[in-house]
Prior knowledge:
The structure is a homodimer of 341-residue chains.
Chain A (H helix, E strand, L loop, with lengths): L1 H7 L3 H9 L9 H13 L6 H8 L4 E5 L15 H15 L3 E4 L8 H5 L6 E5 L5 H9 L4 E4 L12 E4 L1 H14 L5 E5 L7 H15 L9 E3 L4 H8 L6 E4 L2 H10 L12 E6 L12 E4 L2 H16 L8 E4 L2 E3 L9 H4 L2
Parallel strand pairs in A: 1-2, 1-3, 3-4, 4-5, 5-11, 6-7, 6-8, 8-9, 9-10
Antiparallel strand pairs in A: 10-12
Chain A binds a DNA duplex (16 and 16 nucleotides) through helix 2 and helix 4.
Amino acid sequence: xxxxxxKAGVTPTVVSRVLHNKATSIRVSEATAQxxxxxxxxxxxxxxxxxxxxxxxxTNTIGVLHGVGFDRPILxxxxxxxxxLMDGIIEGAFRHGYAVTLCPRLMSDTPEDxxxxxRFDGLIxxxxxxxxxxVAMIRACSAPLVLIHPQPDDLVGCFPIVSCDNAGGVxxxxxxxxxxxxxxxxxxxxxxQEFSESNLRRDAFESxxxxxxxxxxxxxxxxxxxEDGVEAYLAAPPRHTAILAHNDELAAAFVRRAPAxxxxxxxxxxxxxxxxxxxCEEVRPTLTSVSQPLEAIGTRASELLVARIVGEALPTxxxxxxxxxxxxxxxxxxxxxxxxx
Amino acid sequence: xxxxxxKAGVTPTVVSRVLHNKATSIRVSEATAQxxxxxxxxxxxxxxxxxxxxxxxxTNTIGVLHGVGFDRPILxxxxxxxxxLMDGIIEGAFRHGYAVTLCPRLMSDTPEDxxxxxRFDGLIxxxxxxxxxxVAMIRACSAPLVLIHPQPDDLVGCFPIVSCDNAGGVxxxxxxxxxxxxxxxxxxxxxxQEFSESNLRRDAFESxxxxxxxxxxxxxxxxxxxEDGVEAYLAAPPRHTAILAHNDELAAAFVRRAPAxxxxxxxxxxxxxxxxxxxCEEVRPTLTSVSQPLEAIGTRASELLVARIVGEALPTxxxxxxxxxxxxxxxxxxxxxxxxx
DNA sequence: ATGAAAGCGCTAACAA
DNA sequence: TTGTTAGCGCTTTCAT
Lengths: 341, 341
């Protein structure tokens, strides 16, 4: 820039005004402006956006964090969960001219640094299982922050939170199954988390079943790992005609292993997953699943974040987007032998 | 930082040395250092990474560009092509402590700016179809740059290029098909590009078929759009027993539409796709396809880029990674009626 | 062992 | 209309 100024016989200030000032009045004579433009062109001058951002104390970039203690989310394999979310985040960010950055580990040496290191105008925190450590980090974050996924109660109201309506999704699945005549329905989840979306789904399941007078005992709440646990369940005498799993992977484990235990899907056992990632299409039979509006969630998160960044001191609403139910091939009418107890 | 210095009764220089200097000798007395650390802790001081990067003239960030004139690649729907590539890029970048940024449009007002705006230590250019405009931009780029996908000849040798061995992939597919007895094989592609990976595949197809004495006439080189074009081909009398498509989407179009025209897949017509994205699993029957090592390509691109960034003035090798062939359900023995002509 | 000074490239407030 | 000055937060000579 200095070179351009020298060549045009002006000061850097003028160059800045001519080349970058978007104000209506440039306050530079046309002749001078032209000289500057010519010089810039000749020297192939390019503004250093990084320096500009530094000076303006804004980076036009939002960071996507996924919490510590988890592997980096995978885009091209397995569930498309994170891919869909990212698409939404990117869509919303690009719409407002923000770039999106994915960070290694959590970037700098300590997570706290990462969240307030000046590289981002704002952050989207994506984590399904907020550990104490993560919650502490979230609390300590000084930059604008939007959370995706339901979060522990003590975070609600402090930050905008975007999530799907898990209870509504569970209800959709159960209405579908009971409509097919199922009465003996299990809920399957993996491991026990202190807090997570699984828990919300489990609670919603219990509550819905109870409300509808479908007897529940503890044995209906399965906690199984996708390998041995699922096989052990299938090896035992049938106790349910339908299973709602807390996510697609676990549902798929049932679908894939059932035939080996003489249980036909869906004739003997209906299975419903949760998330309806396109992974459901890769399972045979294809997996009926509760769908989350993942892209919409991502987009909304970006938009709320941008709103914060540009200073709208909005309230911090928890936004809940509705779920749907994608009917595929793993549900059918209940087998009569088990449907009445 | 100034505040910390004041509180500890030293200058910012000392603070910087105590908190951030990784040199073996800090050259600060332990007593002073401790005072600084205490002050920093009390004030909850966090280094501003952005400022540091500015000063050091390096951003620890690489940008991913996808060229102008195309829509932003999608991660969560359709083919997983870009998702897999991104996974590889991220993997390679994170391994060396670099963040990865996705940019809106091509970021700044003009593409040229984008590529030299100081925000990135280096760039990965991902584009399947380099238009003249894109080639010009690539040439003008002043930052370290690595290209993914085969590129026009005049770019070879100027930049590191990572791609798959398209000719090898075509050979794998054709060996498989001829091994099944197919002799009348078509190559299907979409539209005509001045330059693109499709062309390499087409050329490889022609050359392989000719070398192996399998008569070729122009009618074997289909140029069809995935809707009307495919239907028109299927509506006409059968001319081939197998089709190799330039990508999975087009292959899927044949598979999906064939039944409506009385052509069973694979009994009447074998179909092979290209890329073997997990999308192949969503087609019925599942799609046999040539696989690219997408993640490996992405990772390698990141690594070459990092090598450039840290200043290894390496030669600019074109790296070609081998393809594989994922056998699924869309290929079978050739129907006799057509196999001999 | 510590401090003073300079400067990365840019922009904005103010002065002329 | 143009120039001067100052400073974003940090690190790095170089001097003390």
